[in-house]
From TrEMBL:
Signal peptide limits: 1-26
GO MF annotations in UniProt: efflux transmembrane transporter activity; porin activity
SUPFAM superfamilies named in the record: Outer membrane efflux proteins (OEP) (SSF56954)
Pfam families xrefs: OEP
Recorded family membership: Belongs to the outer membrane factor (OMF) (TC 1.B.17) family.
Location, primary (coarse class): membrane
UniProt feature coiled coil, ranges: 344-371
Protein name: TolC family protein
């Protein structure tokens, strides 16, 4: 019996303190899962789509500097409306009549007066218009703003990635700890079964009554229920981990190492590299550019254009219907009742608001880092305490078991020692997972994991 207990404790300690080469292998597998999460996570995919949208918006802003060619065309069919009356017949018919008399011929015909419709009837105008901005401050600032928004969205993607890294690591540790809990309860079940065997032997030899046997059988049922609960926790942990990786919720998780070492220390770095601050910085820069863009009404807009087309009646097309028109357009807003000034002031208040938010966020991130360091130190202290408690609980159980076999101890006292041993094993496993989770939280708050 003592040999079984010693082996059990040795196995647990081995699970916690295997050589560092195994840790490197586990870290490699965990990094592979993180990369899989980067590739498949749907939330990150949505952020990447937004980044792609920002890139396309920048391309659109750049295209505003290039020539724009359009095909324009009109066709009109008209009847009625204003006319221009030309008395050509009244002017020319007397002259033609005199000429016919002089020449004794009818070479000069009678001409009717003309009435020309002002609205063009059966008239078309088709042209290619090429336009190009020569001076336009608004589209220049618009391009600059779009560049800032790309940086901001890239920072948002990185924020999501870092949060995803932390969640994947925490879920991985949780799954590992849940599996350890199942193993611990299974080992406790073996000890209870051994106790049942011992009590049955003592009962047959008349050393004990059946009370201890009944109590040990009851404890066996309680541990079976605990195993069921621990197995359920393990299944839930597996489902959550696979959810983060966008895999089937029942996919197997590779734990290719039995070693998760505690981290003795963590680095303390500044939070100035946090992507949340980058987001706010780029937002401030974008609003400053927006403020300048609102003031750019002071700069006139100058465009040039060239029309190449054809116009005529009855769809005639020849050298006489063809034409070109080249010109420049100037727009200079001299008075707008203060509209542009008010817009500029609004952008100025947006800058001030974001600057205040930046200061608050910077303090909040520093607070998070300080709290995560305190949590890590507490988790590490609890881990060291749990190791000591496990060693003491193991010794206490061995001592109690020896006394119990000699008939000098009640079974309820032995059972209490067994429960202490099992709880100490669970606490050590949980404390170890808490240390790793706290380290992942520090890594997140310091933006330390390489995500590029």
């Amino acid at each position: 019996m003592l040999t079984m207990i010693n082996k059990r404790v040795a196995i647990i300690l081995l699970l916690l303190f295997t050589a560092h080469s195994w840790q490197s292998k586990a870290q490699s597998q965990l990094d592979a899962y993180i990369q899989e999460g980067f590739k498949n996570n749907q939330g990150l995919h949505q952020q990447s789509i937004q980044l792609e949208r920002s890139l396309l918006a920048l391309k659109e802003a750049k295209s505003l500097f290039l020539p724009n060619i359009s095909l324009l065309g009109t066709y009109t069919k008209a009847n009625g409306g204003r006319t221009i009356d030309l008395p050509i017949g009244d002017l020319m018919n007397p002259v033609y009549a005199t000429l016919n008399q002089l020449t004794n011929s009818n070479n000069f015909p009678h001409i009717d007066n003309q009435s020309i419709l002002l609205n063009p009837d059966n008239f078309y105008d088709a042209k290619f218009r090429t336009s190009l901005p020569l001076i336009n401050a608004e589209i220049w600032y618009n391009q600059k703003i779009k560049k800032e928004l790309i940086t901001q969205q890239q920072a948002a993607v990185n924020v999501y990635k870092r949060e995803l890294v932390k969640n994947i690591k925490s879920a991985y540790y949780q799954y590992y700890q849940a599996g350890k809990a199942v193993a611990i309860y299974n080992n406790a079940q073996l000890l209870v079964k051994e106790n049942i065997r011992v009590n049955e032997s003592l009962l047959k030899n008349g050393v004990r009554n059946n009370t201890a046997l009944t109590r040990s059988q009851t404890e066996k049922q309680k541990i079976e229920a605990a195993i069921t609960q621990a197995s359920n926790n393990q299944l839930n942990a597996k489902a959550y981990f696979n959810f983060l990786l966008n895999r089937s919720l029942t996919s197997d998780i590779i734990i290719d190492t039995t070693y998760f070492s505690k981290q003795e220390s963590v680095n303390t770095t500044s939070t100035n590299t946090r992507e949340e601050l980058v987001q706010l910085n780029t937002g401030i820069a974008a609003y400053k550019l927006a403020e300048k863009m609102q003031r750019s009404y002071l700069v006139p807009k100058l465009n040039t254009f060239l029309d190449l087309g054809s116009q005529g009646f009855n769809f005639d097309y020849n050298s006489k219907t063809q034409y070109y028109i080249w010109g420049v357009n100037l727009q200079w807003d001299l008075f707008a009742a203060g509209k542009n000034r008010y817009k500029s002031q609004q952008a100025k208040t947006d800058v001030a608001s974001l600057q205040a938010q930046y200061s608050q966020t910077e303090q909040a991130l520093q607070l998070q880092t300080e709290q995560s360091l305190n949590n890590y130190n507490t988790a590490l202290s609890n881990y060291n305490s749990a190791k000591t408690q496990l060693a003491l609980a193991n010794k206490y159980y061995n001592d109690q078991l020896k006394v119990y076999k000699e008939g000098q101890l009640l079974y309820i006292e032995l059972l209490d020692a067994l429960n202490q041993l099992t709880n100490s094993e669970l606490q050590l496993s949980l404390a170890q997972a808490n240390v790793l989770t706290a380290a992942a939280e520090i890594e997140r708050n310091q933006a330390a994991y390489p995500i590029n």
